[in-house]
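The records we work with from here on pair a chain with its fold. A complete example follows; check for yourself that the lines match position by position.
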Amino acid sequence: MKRFTDTWLRNLKPKAKLYEYREGDGFSVRIQPSGTKTFYYIYADAGKKQRVRIGEYGAMSLLEAREKAAALHSTRKRGTDLKLNCITIAEEALIHTNPRIRESSWEKAV
């Protein structure tokens, strides 16, 4: 498995269909036909593949995405149900990418 780099990610070109690369420990990037590059953490739960969206490349750095994936992997290895934490992860990603929310409290921004 290839370790992602910023240069490698920037040079990924969109194709007619969605495609994906995996780095390891569940960390992956999907490239949409539109060119959007989205980071995910992938794991198996009861034999079924689950996917947690981490964020988009550009709004989030590769380092930030890798750290979030590592945290999710660590959480999963401790036996914590990631489905219960998905709202928190989604809220955190929204706060990270939305300056209006980041600069005020959640209640004031919504």
